[in-house]
Amino acid sequence: MKLHTITTLLATLTISTASLAEGVKEVLMGVDIQPKSLVLHVASGGCTSKSDFKIDIRKDKNAQHPLQVTIFRQVPDYCEAHIPNGIKLYYDRASLGLSGDIEFTLTNAIGTTSPHY
User: Fold this and answer.
1) Phi, psi of 33, deg, nearest 5
2) Where are the domains of the chain?
3) Which of 14-23, 37-46, 80-89, 108-117 has the least mean pLDDT?
4) Would you indicate the residue range of the signal peptide (predicted)?
5) What CA–CA distance (Å, rounded) separates 19 from 13?
6) Contact 105, 69 (CB under 8 A)
7) Among candidates 95, 3, 80, which has minimal Cα distance to 11?
8) Per the confidence metrics, is the pTM higher than 0.85?
9) HEC states along 50-115?
10) With contact defined as beta carbons under 8 Å apart, do 117 and 30 qualify?
11) Angle CA(87)–CA(85)–CA(90) in degrees, nearest 5?
C-alpha cells in the first residue's frame, strides 16, 4: 500500500475509535425537565440502563448562550424485548450541573428512529 493510503486508513480508524469511546448520539423519545430531575425517555430492547448513557454538557465560550447538553448511548442494547413506549431514566439535575434557573439546549434528535425502538 502507498504511504498516503495507510495514513488515511489510520486517521479513519483513530476517528472511529474516538467516536466509539464517546458513544452514539441517542435519538430520544422525549425529555421531561422537572424541578429537580431530568427525565430521558429512551427506546429499549429490554437491557437498557442509566449506566449505558453519558451526558455531555458543554459551556459555550460566550456566556450569553445556554449550555449544550448531548446524550450519548455508550452501551448498545441488543436485547429483543418488545417495549414500544421505551423506558424513562431519571437524572438528578444538581449532579449534572443543571439545577436552578438555567437554560440549556438539547442537541439530540427527538423521535422514534432509534435502532432500539
Assistant:
1) -105, 105
2) 23-106
3) 14-23
4) 1-21
5) 10
6) yes
7) 3
8) no
9) HHHEEEEEECCCCCCCCEEEEEEECCCCCCCCCCCCCEEEEEEHHHHCCCCCCCEEECCCECCCCC
10) no
11) 25
Amino acid identity at 77: D
Residue pLDDT, tens place only, 21-72:
679 999 999 999 999 999 999 999 999 999 999 999 998 676 667 899 999 9
Judge contact between 89 and 53, C-beta under 8 A. Answer: yes
Per the CB < 8 A criterion, the answer to whether 11 and 60 are in contact is: no
CA-CA-CA-CA torsion sign (107, 111, 115, 116): positive
Written as nine digits, the cell of 14 is: 483513530
Instruction: Classify the C-alpha dihedral 82-106-25-109 as positive or negative.
Output: positive
Residues 87/47, Cβ–Cβ less than 8 Å: no
Side by side, the strands of the sheet bearing 87-92 are 30-33, 37-42, 87-92
